[in-house]
Structure formats: structure tokens, C-alpha cells
Write a structure and sequence with these properties.
Layout lengths: L10 H9 L1 H12 L2 H15 L11 H36 L5 H15 L4 H12 L4 H8 L3 H23 L1 H5 L13
Helix pairs in contact: 2-3, 2-4, 3-4, 6-8, 7-8
């Protein structure tokens, strides 16, 4: 039987690697501290390297695969570190983000509230409850007799509809962050 996945692979080499499966798994689990993650890394290493096993001398096969696993663990730690750095950067950006002055915030809220009132009633209600009043989506869903996923979809669609209304009403100001709102739905001073 010709399987394209294993074409060109050396069956004794594969058998030698599979015979060491438990040892490889213990090795990985000791380094990552999580059995499920160790299993994922091992499976990925098997998939990526079985075709290369036939190019490795028999006596060097197991040590070669341990080096492959060590590199996979290093890559895993690098990905974790990169993810942690990205989260830290995002958190710093949130801390540094300027909040509008109270009078500007009131003007923005007034403009957005008027535009939200032009949406379908269930969308306007969802935005008011979740975005303005700070009700959790799950709580909103329970109060309205909806599933949490249905409420989440409703809020997503409401936000999208509101975004479109802001663009329609404010034009390019909506895209570029205009702070001098003179759109037709804004209160005149």
C-alpha cells in the first residue's frame, strides 16, 4: 500500500522512534511541565520529521530526535515569550492611552447615543446595556432570555451597525479621529 504521507520513509527508523515514544514524552513533559503540551509537541515533531528519519544513521536516530525535541521545546518557549511581550506591550499601550476630557467625552457620548437610537431597537438596547451601563454579556443574555452566544452575536452586529452609522454621519472624521464634531447629529453650541 503506497501512502503519500509515508512515501520515502524508512519503516525500521519509524519503528525505532515509536519504540521510544514514552521516553520522548517523559523528556518533553519534564521540560514543559504539561502533559498535554508535551503530547502536542511530540506529535508535531513526529509529523514534521518522520520523512527525514531515513536520512539519519540508525545509531544516531534517537539522539537526533532528542535534539529535534529540544529545539521544539526552545521554539515553544520562544513563542510563549513573544506572546508575553506582545501582551505586555498592549497593556502599556492601554495605560498610556489618553482618555478624552470630560466635556469631549460627553459630546462623543451624545453623538454616539443619537446614532445608536437610529439602529434596530434590539441593537440599541444591547449597546446601551453592555457598552453604556456596563452589563456583562452573559448577564444581558440571562435578563433577555437569550443564549450567551446569541447575545454576543447581537452585540457584535450592533457594534458593526453603529460603526457604519458613524461613518455615514461623520464621514472621514470617523476614520481619522476628528475631535471637532460638527456632524448633523451632534449638538450645536
Amino acid at each position: 500500500m503506497n501512502d503519500p504521507e509515508t512515501a520515502g520513509t524508512d519503516t525500521p527508523a519509524i519503528a525505532a522512534l515509536l519504540d521510544n515514544h514514552r521516553a520522548f514524552l517523559r523528556y518533553l513533559e519534564g521540560r514543559v511541565g504539561d502533559r498535554a503540551l508535551a503530547e502536542d509537541i511530540l506529535q508535531d515533531a513526529f509529523i514534521r520529521n518522520l520523512g527525514r528519519a531515513s536520512n539519519v544513521p540508525r545509531e544516531a536516530l534517537v539522539p537526533w530526535f532528542y535534539r529535534t525535541l529540544r529545539n521544539a521545546v526552545i521554539d515553544q518557549y520562544r513563542r510563549r515569550a513573544a506572546k508575553a511581550r506582545a501582551l505586555e506591550t498592549f497593556a502599556r499601550e492601554l495605560e498610556l492611552q489618553d482618555t478624552p476630557a470630560p466635556d469631549m467625552a460627553r459630546e462623543i457620548c451624545t453623538c454616539i447615543a443619537r446614532l445608536a437610537d437610529t439602529l434596530k431597537p434590539e441593537y440599541a438596547e444591547a449597546l446601551k446595556a453592555i457598552e453604556v451601563d456596563g452589563v456583562a454579556v452573559k448577564t444581558y443574555a440571562e435578563q433577555r432570555g437569550l443564549s450567551a452566544s446569541n447575545a454576543g452575536v447581537r452585540v457584535f452586529r450592533a457594534r458593526e451597525a453603529l460603526r457604519k452609522r458613524v461613518v455615514q454621519s461623520c464621514g472621514t472624521c470617523a476614520e481619522h479621529g476628528c475631535v471637532d464634531c460638527t456632524c448633523s447629529s451632534s449638538p450645536r453650541r
